[in-house]
Design goal:
Number of domains: 1
Largest sheet: none
Number of strands: 0
Helix content: over 70%
Oligomer: single chain
Structural class: mainly alpha
Radius of gyration: 20 Å
Shape: globular
């Protein structure tokens, strides 16, 4: 990845995090008068738009200077998406339901793609590269499952750390007879 592409991707990720935060913080009130179920569609659509844009940007970044017959970009996208999705589900038990939908169904659903993986495997077969196609599908599934497993473990460790920090704060607060909202 060239430095300019790296900067663009990092800037996009920063903007994504900022926009999600600001949208949730400032614009959630516009849905408070309507049907509560409509919020989830907004969050899914918003996350999906951002995930699709990031996927499009990454799809055209040259990841490797080596001549490889495998679609490395889609492999990286799906592998990273598997890790993040499993990690998110492992730590998101207390998160806002709409925010979980925006990240998992919206952003990661649009970011990762099974259909592109299949299209690229068929393209390899059509180009006479049957064994590369089989290898690509095998490595995609194996890495996806492996990264999902690691994401699950990572998410559980993060959740345990969050719970531990919360419990320590509660113990300190009870030791000093503090009420909710008081500074520790």
């Amino acid at each position: 990845m060239t430095p300019i592409n790296s900067v663009i991707v990092h800037m996009f990720i920063g903007v994504f995090i900022f926009v999600i935060y600001e949208t949730y913080k400032n614009y959630i009130s516009m849905f408070s008068m309507g049907d509560e179920s409509m919020k989830k569609y907004f969050f899914i659509g918003f996350g999906g738009a951002l995930g699709a844009i990031l996927r499009f940007l990454i799809e055209y970044v040259q990841i490797s200077n080596h001549i490889v017959n495998l679609p490395i970009n889609t492999l990286v996208i799906n592998t990273v998406g598997s890790f993040v999705l499993a990690m998110t589900y492992s730590i998101a038990y207390e998160a806002n339901e709409n925010l979980k939908l925006a990240i998992t169904v919206g952003f990661l659903g649009a970011f990762t793609t099974f259909s592109t993986m299949c299209k690229e495997a068929v393209k390899l077969i059509n180009n006479g590269q049957f064994y590369y196609s089989i290898f690509y599908l095998f490595i995609s599934v194996a890495l996806g499952l492996g990264m999902a497993y690691l994401g699950n473990i990572t998410g559980k460790n993060i959740a345990i750390t969050i719970i531990s920090i919360k419990n320590n704060r509660l113990e300190i607060a009870s030791d000093y007879n503090l009420e909710e909202g008081d500074e520790i």
